[in-house]
Specification:
about 300 residues, Protocatechuate 3,4-Dioxygenase, subunit A
Length: about 300
Amino acid sequence: MSIDLTEETITGAVQQTFDNTSDVRAKELFATLVRYLHDFAREVRLTDEEWFTAMDFLVRVGQKSSPTRQEFILLSDVLGLSVLVDLINHHRGPFATESTLLGPFFIENRPKVPNGADISGGVAGIPLFVTGRVVDPEGNPVAGVHVDTWHSDGDGYYDVQMPEKLHDQPAMRALLTTAADGRFRYRSIAPKYYPVPTDGPVGEIMRVSGRSPIRPEHIHFRLQAPGYDPLITMLFRGDDSHLTTDPVFGAKRSLVVDFVRHEPGVAPDGTVVDVPFQTVDWTFTLVPRSDSRNG
């Protein structure tokens, strides 16, 4: 390798350092990454000050991240990379439920609950009754599907954002399993639209670009079953005015649902509710794993 590198020869020299990489895919990824990074710097004529600012920004993104606050995922989300990777890798066909982002607030520490359980964790809000059904592309029910679900409260906060109020206990999230008929159901409280966290470095991007940080109202789901392609998706309230300005580009027309309002009375689980409540009823279609790799 030459010691007299120029603006034109530095890229090839760095790429050559990966020539002995035993993992062919890793070699391709690093060599291509170097090419695009160097091309970017040359195209915009990156200054010393801008480079230092970028390095400081990435350091602060790492410092802001924690087990319950994934600032790097949020950065990927607001730059559209998360959705792009999902679009590249998940072509489920016209009859399957579309996937979208996992988001920064998923955690493994969630309670396993039976169907029909109240997962609100005692948080006050408008009662919400969610009924779901999981089927295959032919409409046959899929039993034994592990269904993760999580959402915000009526003020737009997730449980991990309220550790003191909830005494570090999970709320508005749970892991359920579909019954023989492919169904699952639970009671919770209605979520609300909310801003993505803007108190960290990613918030600086939102402010400098003049973008709205408000995510439309939604409920998260992650479905997993042996023999099927895992599905990460959301259901969005249809009358939410923020659907077309989702800052993480996750909203999709096929995932828009009705949050149906009901007057006080008998709820879907047979209980009597003495205040107005809402219901959501949706069918999720999973694709067999071998099929999910096609088209």
